[in-house]
């Protein structure tokens, strides 16, 4: 996968349509390799999350073309590749899945719930509050801790409304994004060792996804 990272690095330096069109064959070769990688990951995820077997690469991949209509940044192309294996509905499903981010100097695997709306974030916080022992068991498990440092981004400065400020686990409720990230060496993602490294991280985040997916499906 070094060729993928190399292409993205060049695209980051030359993010314009003229350069992209001149290197379209390179991009199409990258696209083919990513589709093969995605198919391998779907097969691997299906071993511990059987619903993933319903997915195809097209259900998990995003376009490289940016929507610049409402953005101050008018560069036309994304300089990363995202693979989101989200069974059973695919990348547009509201549930939590398994995300692989490929970007020069910033490759990672992620899971959890990103950017929930106000109703869902309230439900997630209530479920954590009501089931904190189960939640802590997930966060403290050996498999999770091997790859993830914790859960949560974009933290509130104080306790969220409706929860006691002196609760001993109040920090668990402060994130606005309940996501977990695991950095990944760029390496050669075509190799069985690297594929296993990605799948091990995805397997480790499944219990967290399951916890949040209960909140999502019940909200």
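Q: What amino acid sequence fits the structure above?
A:
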């Amino acid at each position: 996968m070094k060729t993928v990272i190399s292409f993205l690095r060049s695209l980051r330096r030359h993010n314009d349509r003229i350069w992209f069109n001149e290197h379209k064959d390179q991009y199409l070769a990258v696209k083919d390799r990513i589709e093969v990688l995605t198919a391998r990951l779907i097969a691997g995820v299906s071993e511990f999350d059987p619903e993933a077997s319903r997915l195809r690469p097209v259900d998990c991949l995003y376009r490289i073309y940016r929507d610049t209509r409402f953005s101050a940044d008018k560069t036309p192309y994304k300089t990363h590749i995202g693979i989101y294996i989200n069974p059973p509905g695919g990348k547009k499903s509201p549930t939590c899945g398994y995300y692989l981010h490929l970007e020069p100097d910033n490759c990672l695997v992620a899971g959890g719930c990103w950017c929930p709306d106000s109703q869902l974030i309230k439900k997630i916080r209530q479920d954590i509050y009501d089931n904190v022992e189960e939640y802590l068991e997930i966060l403290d498990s050996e498999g999770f801790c091997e790859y993830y440092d914790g859960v949560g981004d974009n933290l509130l400065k104080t306790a969220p409304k409706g929860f006691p400020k002196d609760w001993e686990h109040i920090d668990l409720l402060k994130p606005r994004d309940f996501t977990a990230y695991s950095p990944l060496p760029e390496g050669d993602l075509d190799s069985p060792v690297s594929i296993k490294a990605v799948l091990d991280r995805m397997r480790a985040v499944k219990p967290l996804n399951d916890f949040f997916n209960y909140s999502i499906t019940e909200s």
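Q: And what stands out in the fold?
A: The first strand starts at residue 81 and ends at 85.
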